[in-house]
Amino acid sequence: METITGAAQDFLDSLSKTQREGVQFELKDPARHTWSNLPLNSYPREGLITGELSEEQLRLFYLLLEASLSSQGYTQALQIIAVDEIHLQNGNPNMGADQYSMSISGDPSSTEPWSWQFDGHHLCFTFTIHTDQVTMSPSLWGVDPVEIPEDGGDLAGIRVLGDEVEMAFVLMNSLTESQQETATVSQGVSGGLVAGPDHDVYSIPDEKLGLSVAEMSLEQQELLLELAQTFILDMEDTHAALKLAEVEAEIETLFFAWVGSAEVDTQIYFRIYGPSLLIELDHINGADHIHAVYRDPSNDYGENMLAKHYARYPHGP
C-alpha cells in the first residue's frame, strides 16, 4: 500500500501548518465515525474542505483518492461529484465539488496503522491502512437522479449506480417463486439503511435476514457474487481481490434480503449480509434516488486489524 501512503504524505506536505493541524487527528479520535450522506451544511464534518484547497493541493488530494480506489471506484466517485456539480449549477449552493471534507487519522506510515476519510453529500470512504492491509469500511454512495440529465455535458445519460441496481433485479428474477417469497422481507417501502450514517451499532432481526445463500443454486450464487462485486471492485485492486476471496469462502453463510417487488425499474431495497460483508442499497423517494452502503462487520473502521496490531505492539494511553 506504498502508493496510498506516499500519496497521503505528498498531500500533507503541500499543506500549511494551520491546514495540517486542521486535517490530522489521532487514530482513535471519534472524528472517523462522523460521516453522512447529507451535505456539509446539514451535517458538519471534521478536517479540510475541498473548496479551501489550492489548485495544487486539490490535485494531490485527487491523486490520493485515485490511489485508494480502483479505476472503477474512482470513476464512480467522480460521477457522483459531477451530479452534485449539476445541482450547484441549478442553484443549490450547498452542493458541488467544493463541498467535501477530508481528514487523516494518524501519520501515513508503511509500518504503523493510519486512516483517512473522504466525506460529503452522497459519498463517503473510510480507509484504514496497515502495512499491506486496507479496509474501505464503512463507505457510502448516493445519487439523485440516477441518470445524469442532458445538462450533464459529457456525462449525460450515464446511470450512476446503474450496474448495482440492474444486477440486483437480475439476481432477484433468477430466484424461484418460493425463494423470492423468502428473500422478500417486505412488499412495501424500506425503513432506510440499517447500517447507514449514525448506525455503527445495528442489528438485523432473524425474520428479516431473508434468503440463505446456501439455499441458492450455484448459478444463483454466482449472480449474487457478481452483485457484490459491483461494490467490492470499487476498492483498490489488491484489496478487492482479497475481499472477494473472503466472501467466496463464506458464501453459504450469507443472506440476501429484498424489499419491494421484482418488477424492473420499481422502488426497491436489497441487502447482502454475512460475517464479514454488509451491502445495502435503498431507493428513497421513488426509484430515482439511491443510498448505498458497504461495511465489513468483522473489521469495521479496521477495528480487527487495529486490535491485532495493538495486542502485539502495545501503545500508550
Describe this structure in words.
With 317 residues, the chain is of the alpha+beta class. 35% of the residues lie in helices and 20% in strands. It has helices spanning 2-13, 17-23, 55-68, 71-89, 162-174, 177-183, 218-232, 237-249, 303-312, and strands at residues 24-25, 48-49, 100-105, 114-120, 123-130, 133-135, 139-143, 184-186, 211-212, 255-259, 269-274, 277-283, 290-295. Strands 1, 2, 3, 4, 5, 6, 7, 8, 9, 10, 11, 12 and 13 form a 13-stranded mixed beta sheet that branches. A hairpin with an 8-residue loop joins strand 3 (100-105) and strand 4. The radius of gyration is 20 Å and the shape is globular.
Helix content: 25-40%
What is the helix/strand order? Answer: HHEEHHEEEEEHHEEHHEEEEH
Low-confidence stretches: 308-313
- Strand percentage: 15-25%
Q: Give me the number of helical elements.
A: 9
Main sheet overview: 13 strands, mixed
User: How many E strands?
Assistant: 13
Mean pLDDT: 92
Output the radius of gyration. 20 Å
Q: Distance between the terminal alpha carbons, to the nearest Å? A: 27 Å
Instruction: Sum up the overall morphology in one term.
Output: globular
User: What structural category do the secondary elements indicate?
Assistant: alpha+beta
